[in-house]
Write a structure and sequence with these properties.
The protein has about 575 residues and is of the alpha/beta class. It is about 60% helix and about 10% strand. The protein has 3 domains: about 300 residues, ABC transporter transmembrane region fold (Up-down Bundle), CATH 1.20.1560.10; about 190 residues, P-loop containing nucleotide triphosphate hydrolases (Rossmann fold, 3-Layer(aba) Sandwich), CATH 3.40.50.300; about 55 residues, no CATH class. A hairpin with a 2-residue loop joins β4 and β5. The radius of gyration is 35 Å and the shape is elongated. The chain starts with a helix and ends with a helix. The relative contact order is 0.08.
Amino acid sequence: MVNEIKSIVRYDKRVVLYFFIQFIAYIFLPILTAYAVASLINMESIRDFLIKIGFILLGIVVIKYADALSRNRIEAFSSNYRVDKLYTINKQYLSVDYSLLENPDFIRKMSAAYQCVYGSDKAFGSITKDLITLFSQASSVLLILYYFFMLDTLFLALIISKLILLAVLSKYKRRNWDKNYEKESDVQKRLRYISDTMNVPSNGKDIRLFGMEDVFRTKFNSNIKELRKIRADKRKFLHIETVIELIFSVALYVLFLSVLLHNPNVDATSAIVLFSILNLVNLSSSKIITTTYEVRKDLSDIQNYYDYIEIQNVDELTGDTTICTDEIKISFDHVSYSYDGEKNVLNNVSFDINTGDNVAVVGDNGAGKSTIIKLMTGLYKPTSGKILFNGRDISDFNLKAYHKLFSVIFQEQHQFYESFKESIIEGEQWNQEKFDEVIDKSKLKGLVDKLPSGIDTNLVSGIDSDGVRLSGGELQRLKFARAIYKDAPIFILDEPTSALDPFVEQELFNMYGDIMNGKTSLYISHRLSSTKFCNKIIVLRHGEIVDEGTHDELIEKEGYYQKVYTIQKEAYHA
């Protein structure tokens, strides 16, 4: 708690002032209100009453205004503090080793960290408000209890007994809520998934044509019933809490009446003010336990944030930034890789790619083809063996500098929230002449002419009013244009046409062939007919190289490559 308080104060020292304002408001507003009522009862003259009530009301207005202002500032502070933490989470995500992004433990930590910042009632959005509320409640109870202790020690005994009982109940309530938390989370995840699935327009066809409406209704209703059952189990502690509150409230007020009866000198004004203060203590003592639980929950969630932030980042500033590309030789030297540390997806793989080579890596799904790309580009580190660039281990190079060697087109069909122009230039410098040349080479001129805002059109529909959605072929041309614009010495194509129809696929192959002429490239595919433009083909099976050579050489060998090629050819012409 202390470290988080220090972090909050370092972020904005004015938080201390906001605390004092809310503390004063928490104690004095009820007291001033009670004095106002008491002044009306003990009114001696209209003039004296108006003067007195005027000062009281002025005090109330000033305190309320200061309190409202401080609450608004705390709300703004909490929002800024939360957004600042969100920025740090996103920065961390972009800085960690890429291999972690597929690690279940990392994904769990990342998800828990994001939960701290999504919503004003989550961890970083509520911790400042909860801490100020807790300190205000605790301070007011301690100060006022001292006064009532002087009147009768039973007041202190009752409040302490109440706090102990509520604290014990809170412990069991928290256990119950923690036990039900994962159950409730699982049910809510299922409900979200069912709702999201139903609400996707493309799913509407299957739901209606296959008569799945009742299936979705049944699943949704059964999960709703389970959710209600879990929440009913959580509410049982609230009933016990209410009974404890009632018993101790009655006991406190009876004791208060008893003290008044035994002190006839206490006038009506004092009685009203004392009752107001007692009521404040009673309510505050009830809220302290709840607020303490909220603070502890906030701090527990915030620890998830720090667990995530403390994950080791990739050091992008170290390593040699000077990489000579006059001649290119990439060597895999007995490279193996395992995702889980047990089973290798690549096993003892060795091959070379030289300047001007157009190399294809082919094989079944799961053979390890895409893993080779991630290893070659430095996204993954080999479990064993070495990857060399011009004779040097690639781990010797600065990672950002090394990434500049590659223009990669991955198979995944996705589009970032950015304009057509931004989607092509990305991290490169803007050059109009170069941009126009790339548009021509990638045959995107016709698309640009149709875009509502030209090259400034956003390519994510549903967010901007003039945003558009590209077809699969258009999106692949765009990704190809981005790779050309980067103009890196090595091109990598990771099954870029796997989701396209044969006509678009052939058109893109022709375009690739023209552009790849003279470039060093690596091409990943499971369609063997698409590798004819490559001067070297590496055949992967179960993570191992089973053959390599040109297309004609591999056909003549009548091995695994020839068998798969024949099957695919017959299926295509059937």
